[in-house]
Amino acid sequence: MSRKGKVPIKIPAGVEVKFDEKAVNVKGPKGAMTQDLIPPIHLEVADGQVLVSLKEQYLEYGNFWGLYRTLIENMIIGTSTGFVKELELVGVGYRAAVKGKDLSLSLGFSHPTEMPIPEGLTVEVERNTLVKVSGVDKQKVGAFAAYIRSKRPPEPYKGKGVKYVGEQIRRKAGKSGKGK
Predict the structure, then answer these.
(1) Most buried among 44, 70, 81, 99, using CB within 10 Å?
(2) Which tens digit of pLDDT belongs to each residue from 91-113?
């Protein structure tokens, strides 16, 4: 069975968790989120904690136990504090700017790369080379940050490209050439 699923989830102050047989709703200071549930998952709220368990007749669904516990925990964290991913643009002339509801990236191509900012996310640009993606939904934040990174992933020779802050790029040595 799931070791992760057995751990209760603490509910911070200001966060409200409501559920029925089909969905769980989490409301907090940063926003609200809803997650559909499958029938084998059973929720219980007691003493400021959420307990996730499997109904007795559905024990073969044990692989969903830890998944739903983590999804609910991410909803609680997201609605109370939110999630942030920071990306760094490394390269000469690489810069970013927010224009209305679009993010514009100059990544060394002949034209700037424009991408719409998804609903529910906020994008901030600091120093023209640091992009902060923040929001309530961890999946949306991570997916949009990965989409931005995919436009120019860091290359291993000079390290130019879009990378996460703190990401270590595996570097390669250039070709050795003929000695004279």
Answers:
(1) 70
(2) 898 999 999 999 999 988 899 99
**CB < 8 Å & 24+ apart, contacts of 31-36:** 31/78, 31/79, 31/120, 31/136, 32/79, 33/75, 33/78, 33/79, 33/136, 33/137, 35/68, 35/71, 35/72, 35/75
Question: How far apart, in whole angstroms, are the C-alpha atoms of residue 172 and residue 17?
Answer: 49
Q: Please enumerate in sequence order all residues whose Cβ is within 8 A of that of 154, keeping only pairs 6 or more positions apart, or say none.
A: 90, 160, 161, 162, 163, 167, 169
Give dist(CA 172, CA 90) in Å, integer. 17
* Domains in the chain with CATH codes: 4-81 (3.90.930.12), 83-164 (3.90.930.12)
